Amino acid sequence: MDFFSDGLRRGVELLFAGDAEVLGITLLSLRVAVFSTAIACALGIPLGFVVGTTRFWGRRAAITALNTMLAFPTVVVGLVIWGLLTRRGPLGGLGLLYSWWAIVVAEVVLAVPVAAALTAAAVQAIDPRVRRTALTLGARPWRTHVAVAREARFALLTAVVVAFGRVLAEVGAALIVGGNIRHHTRTLTTAVALATSQGDFALAMALGLVLFGLALTINVLLQLFQGRGGA
Amino acid sequence: MLSARHLEHRYDGRTVLAVEALDLEAGRITGVVGPNGAGKSTLLRVLAFLERPHAGTLILDGHPVRTSQDRRLARQAVTLVEQRPFVFPGTVHRNLLYGLSLHGITGRDAAARAEASLSRLGASAMADRAARQLSEGEVQRVAIARAIALQPAVLLLDEPVSGADRGALTQLYQVLDEERRRGAAIGFVSHQLEYAYRWANRVFALTDGRLSPLTPDNLFRTTLSEAAGPQIVRAGPLEIEVVTDKSGPATLLIPPEDIVVSREPLHSSARNQYTGRVTRISDDGRGGVTLTVDVGVDLSARITREALDELEIQLGTELILSVKAMAVRVF
């Protein structure tokens, strides 16, 4: 227990000392997470809208596929992306492997199904009268989508936050395609894994606290937003 | 204005609508009555281009509506007010402006039209209230105001009389009548026969998705005075004494079974007596006969075969038809 509390105490000290290493890792992690979430949502939310609101052949299969992709083992996704980006792979020419962009690519693959599946569920749950009312008042299809999105805005925001959470907390794929290179591809999660295996429990704890703090902040912001938007 | 031909619509392989022909004409109100589950709301959603029928054609203003583009344009001319209308968050006024903006009407024009519509439905005081906090009846009035603000060529209403109190109903009827006179084709569905007869120029019955014209004999449209109790009203060439506490536009029904037929005037309690000649005799094959008697208009009277023989009634026979004021049904 002493070991644990000691580690925790030294972790907090490290954090408040403004350790450059911790700050650098945090900023990189945030950069990766923001880019990945933005790209994943730009792709996933429209995809979820289509799956959730339109009737097409194979729709049920598409929903099953999306839900299955939610449970994809992240190391397998990492492995596949590694295979594509490695010098001998089909996309090797891009020279992305072991860069932070490689992590973004892997995280986008992991987060698109999250954004899409949650969006599809959100828009499916919306009262069908929203769409009908907008249409009968003369809305073009895109204005109808805007009306539905407006009704589903909190659920859509939740989709964004969950996608962000998934990306921020992901370790397996980031480790494989990023390589955990100091100052380049070392994210909060990969750094925690490394520090723990090297026996630097205090550093791991400090980074873990940052991760925890980020997750908490985002959820508090979400709650505040939902509370204010009410009705 | 809007015509449907050979419509068929299915849910999960089950046919819910099979309508051979329906015409909503400009300047007329068409009522469709039917029990719950008869397919009334589905019919309206198909007519409003919100659901695509599995078979059949909808013709708007003489043009068949086929492609998605056609349907989108058709929705600019056809508006549906649902039974439980949906209102968007924000004020009542904003709800009306939203619809108008979708028709390219903004700014002062839109504000003026929104206010005029609300005022016609006696809903001006609600303009700045949050639409989501209104009562069911208020939401319905707002939804109708939102629809008429668009001045649709075809206005469809799902159970417009449910949830409205008597005062609101009179106002609603006035608004629909004004819209009709503006040239709109109006269609509404209801499970209340009474309102279909009072409001509509033509009434159809919808049962299990199938439409049939509802034309009971001896129906007269009239306007009742405010006075309660017995009153004499004009219905075409007839003067009919009725007992009712209703007022305003009404439909009178003289049930053919409640008409007493005689060769001589009766000294009886019947307050209404009409003289005319028999123009048609049709035997129902089950011992009953329906006589059509021209008393200025055609009145149908049902009597038994024995009575027909006893009174020696033939085509051209002059008859007296007697009806108690209490027997005249008022819708």
Structure description:
With 231 residues, chain A is an all-alpha fold. Chain A is built from 11 helices and no strands. The longest helix of chain A has 34 residues, at 20-53. Chain A is globular. In chain A, 39% of the residues are buried. By secondary structure, chain B is of the alpha+beta class. Chain B is 25% helix and 37% strand. Chain B has helices spanning 40-47, 68-75, 92-102, 107-120, 136-148, 166-182, 193-199, 305-310; strands spanning 2-11, 14-24, 29-33, 55-60, 63-65, 78-81, 154-158, 185-190, 202-207, 210-213, 219-224, 229-235, 238-244, 248-253, 260-262, 272-283, 288-294, 298-304, 318-323, 329-330. In chain B, helix 6 links the parallel strand 7 (154-158) and strand 8 (185-190). Chain B is globular and about 75 Å long. The model of chain B has no long low-confidence stretch (mean pLDDT 91). Chain A binds chain B through residues 127, 129-130, 132-141, 143, 147, 150, 231, and chain B through 45, 48-50, 72, 75-76, 78-80, 82, 84-86, 88-89, 98-99, 102-103, 130, 132, 146-147, 150.
Protein topology:
The complex is a heterodimer of chains A (231) and B (331).
Chain A: H1 2-16, H2 20-53, H3 59-70, H4 74-85, H5 100-124, H6 128-136, H7 141-151, H8 153-169, H9 172-178, H10 188-197, H11 201-229
Helix pairs in contact in A: 1-11, 2-5, 2-8, 3-5, 4-5, 4-9, 5-8, 5-9, 6-7, 8-11, 10-11
Chain B: E1 2-11, E2 14-24, E3 29-33, H1 40-47, E4 55-60, E5 63-65, H2 68-75, E6 78-81, H3 92-102, H4 107-120, H5 136-148, E7 154-158, H6 166-182, E8 185-190, H7 193-199, E9 202-207, E10 210-213, E11 219-224, E12 229-235, E13 238-244, E14 248-253, E15 260-262, E16 272-283, E17 288-294, E18 298-304, H8 305-310, E19 318-323, E20 329-330
Parallel strand pairs in B: 3-8, 3-9, 6-7, 7-8
Antiparallel strand pairs in B: 1-2, 1-4, 4-5, 9-10, 11-14, 12-13, 14-20, 15-19, 16-17, 16-19, 17-18
Helix pairs in contact in B: 3-4, 3-5, 4-5
